[in-house]
Design brief:
Helix content is about 50%, strand content about 5%. A two-stranded antiparallel ribbon has the order 1-2. The protein is mainly alpha-helical. Helix 1 crosses helix 2.
């Protein structure tokens, strides 16, 4: 297994309000995405059976929606970053 590169760019930036957000997402979307990305902490995790499957499908759809929004913005941001030599305002 290969080790992650130490120079890999981070996907968070500081927005205009000084908040740490995922590129392309608002602070509320970032919080929602992070919550959906952790299955143990998702709302409705205690539901059973069919209700749990329906809830999981909704969470999965929303996660994908937010991820696609972030990924598109990330790709655009990376293309712009490569086009200019200046240092970017990223957080670890």
């Amino acid at each position: 297994m290969s080790e992650p590169k130490k120079d890999a760019p981070r996907r968070y930036i500081v927005d205009g309000a000084g908040q740490r957000v995922l590129v392309g997402l608002t602070i509320s979307e970032t919080i929602e995405f992070e919550a959906l990305d952790k299955p143990d902490t998702r709302p409705g995790a205690e539901l059973l059976g069919e209700a749990a499957r329906v809830q999981e499908a909704r969470h999965g759809e929303r996660w994908v929606e937010l991820y696609v929004k972030h990924e598109r913005a990330w790709n655009d941001w990376m293309a712009q970053t490569r086009a200019r030599p200046a240092q970017s305002p990223l957080l670890n």
